[in-house]
Write a structure and sequence with these properties.
The complex is a heterodimer of chains A (about 325) and B (about 120). Chain A has about 325 residues and is mostly helical. Chain A is about 70% helix and about 0% strand. Chain A has helices spanning about 5-15, 20-40, 45-60, 60-70, 80-110, 115-145, 170-190, 215, 220-240, 245-265, 275-280, 285-315. By secondary structure, chain B is α+β, with helices and mostly antiparallel strands. The longest helix of chain B has 26 residues, at about 85-110. The chains are: A mainly alpha (about 325), B alpha+beta (about 120). The interface between A and B is medium-sized, with 20 and 20 residues.
Chain lengths: ~325, ~120
C-alpha cells in the first residue's frame, strides 16, 4: 500500500507531537483534511489537485505541530531577550578577555614563545571562548524558553527604582586620588625593596623581602606596568564616556593584573626564602602570605566581573 | 501611495483576537473544525486552517470550549461548544469591542483641539 500525500502530511505533523496528544489530533486532522478535499472535489477539482491544494493551505507540518503543542517558533522570546543579551554581553566582556589574557600570559612565560605564537594562542583562546560562551548561554535561554509554564509568565517586572544611580563626581574623585597614592606607595616599596630592607646578611648587604627571581625575569616590571595601566583605566573611567572598547580594556587590564598576582602566589615566587629564613619565619608564614595574595587576586577578579555587569547594565 | 503589504500588516494586527471572539460566538451551537473554518470565512473572518485548529485546542485547554466526538457520521468529528466560561469571556470581549467602536466614533465626531 502506498502512502498518500495526506498520510505523509499527518505523519510529519504527529511525529513532532507528544504521544498522548497524537490519536486525538490525528483523527481530527484527517477528518478536516478529508472535509476540505471533498469540498474542492465537489466544486469540480481533480482529487489529486484538491489534496495538493488543501495540504498547501495547511502549510509546513512543523509549524502546525508547533501550534498544537504550543511550542515557540523562536529561540529566545521577548520576555527573556533583554536578560539574554545582558548576560551574553557581560560574559563576553569579562570571560573572553580573562581567558585570552591567561592563555597569552602562560604562553609568554613558557620560555620558547615567539610574539606571533603568543598572539596566535591568545586570539585562538579568545575565539574558542567566545564561541563557547555564546553557545552555552543561548542553549540555556532556549531551554528556559521551553520550560512548561514559562510562556504564561511575563518579563521580570521593572520599576524606575531599578535605574542605576551615579556615584557623585566628588566621591569618585576621592577614590581616584586614593588609588593614585596607593599605587605610588606600593610601587616605590616594591622597587626599593632590593636596596632597602629590615634585615641584612653577614656582609651588611640588605636581604630583599621579595624573591630576586622577580627582578631576574622582569616579571616585577610587568606587574608594575599592569598596575600603572590599571590606574590609567581609572582615569579614563573618570574623564571619558563609557564605551565598549574602554570597558573591555579596563576589564582586561584588571584581570591580567589579578592573574599575574595569583600565578606568582601559587608558584611561590613572591617572598624571598632567604628573607624568611633570616627573619626566622616558619614555612606557614610564606604559605599564608601566598594564600592571602591568591584571595586578593580572586576578589579583584570577582569585582571586575561584577563591575562590568553593572556598567554594561547601565548602558 | 499606501503600500498593500503595509496595509495588510496593520489590518492583521488590528484583527488579531477577533477570531477568538467569532469562534466563541459561533460555537454557542456545537460545530466541528472544518465547518467552523468555512463559516468564519463566509462571515468575513479570514483565518488560516493551521491557525484555527491549534487555536480550538488552546481554547479547549483554557476551559473556554468543551468538545465531544461524534462518530455517527461517515467520519468521526470532534464537535466544539462554547462553555459557560467561554460565554462569559465572549460577553466581555463583545462589550469591549462596542466600547472601542464608540470611542472611535467619538473621536471622529469631536472637532480637533484648537492649538
Amino acid at each position: 500500500m502506498t502512502l498518500t500525500l495526506t498520510d505523509r502530511y499527518v505523519d510529519a505533523t504527529l511525529r513532532r507531537l507528544p504521544g498522548r496528544q497524537r490519536p486525538d489530533i490525528e483523527q481530527e486532522l484527517r477528518t478536516s483534511i478529508a472535509d476540505a478535499i471533498e469540498d474542492r472535489v465537489e466544486a469540480g477539482a481533480a482529487p489529486e489537485d484538491a489534496e495538493r491544494a488543501v495540504l498547501t493551505d495547511l502549510g509546513d507540518p512543523a509549524r502546525l505541530a508547533a501550534g498544537y503543542a504550543d511550542r515557540p517558533l523562536h529561540l529566545v522570546g521577548p520576555a527573556a531577550y533583554l536578560d539574554y543579551t545582558r548576560l551574553l554581553t557581560t560574559l563576553l566582556a569579562t570571560v573572553v578577555p580573562a581567558v585570552a589574557a591567561y592563555v597569552g600570559l602562560m604562553r609568554a612565560l613558557s620560555g620558547d614563545a615567539t610574539a606571533a605564537g603568543i598572539a596566535a594562542a591568545t586570539a585562538g583562546a579568545a575565539i574558542t571562548t567566545a564561541v563557547h560562551v555564546a553557545f552555552w548561554t543561548t542553549l540555556v535561554f532556549a531551554a528556559i524558553e521551553r520550560l512548561p509554564g514559562r510562556r504564561a509568565r511575563v518579563a521580570r517586572p521593572w520599576s524606575p527604582a531599578a535605574l542605576p544611580d551615579r556615584p557623585s563626581r566628588r566621591a569618585r574623585y576621592a577614590e581616584l586620588v586614593t588609588e593614585t597614592l596607593l599605587l605610588i606607595l606600593i610601587s616605590t616599596f616594591i622597587l626599593l625593596s632590593p636596596y632597602v630592607s629590615a634585615l641584612s646578611d653577614a656582609h651588611g648587604d640588605p636581604i630583599p623581602l621579595f624573591a630576586p627571581w622577580l627582578w631576574d625575569s622582569g616579571v616585577v616590571y610587568l606587574f608594575i606596568a599592569l598596575a600603572v595601566a590599571n590606574l590609567a583605566v581609572s582615569f579614563a573611567k573618570y574623564y571619558l564616556r563609557w564605551s565598549v572598547a574602554r570597558a573591555l580594556t579596563g576589564a582586561l587590564v584588571q584581570i591580567a593584573g589579578a592573574l599575574v598576582l595569583v600565578w606568582l602566589a601559587v608558584s611561590d615566587r613572591v617572598l624571598n626564602p632567604q628573607f624568611a629564613a633570616a627573619a626566622g619565619w616558619g614555612s606557614d608564614v610564606t604559605h599564608w602570605t601566598n594564600v592571602g595574595l591568591v584571595i586578593a587576586g580572586a576578589i579583584t577578579l570577582v569585582h571586575t566581573v561584577l563591575e562590568s555587569v553593572t556598567l554594561s547594565r547601565r548602558r | 501611495m499606501l503600500d498593500d503589504e503595509l496595509i495588510s500588516a496593520h489590518l492583521q494586527e488590528l484583527r488579531r483576537g477577533t477570531v477568538v471572539l467569532a469562534c466563541l460566538l459561533i460555537l454557542e451551537r456545537p460545530n466541528y473544525g472544518y465547518a467552523l473554518l468555512d463559516r468564519l470565512e463566509r462571515g468575513g473572518f479570514a483565518v488560516d486552517a493551521n491557525t484555527l485548529y491549534p487555536l480550538l485546542r488552546r481554547l479547549e485547554k483554557q476551559g473556554l470550549l468543551t468538545s465531544d466526538w461524534n462518530t455517527e457520521e461517515s467520519r468521526p468529528r470532534k464537535f466544539y461548544k462554547t462553555s459557560d466560561d467561554g460565554l462569559a469571556l465572549a460577553e466581555a470581549l463583545r462589550r469591549d469591542w462596542h466600547q472601542l467602536d464608540g470611542s472611535f466614533k467619538a473621536l471622529h465626531a469631536q472637532p480637533a483641539d484648537p492649538e
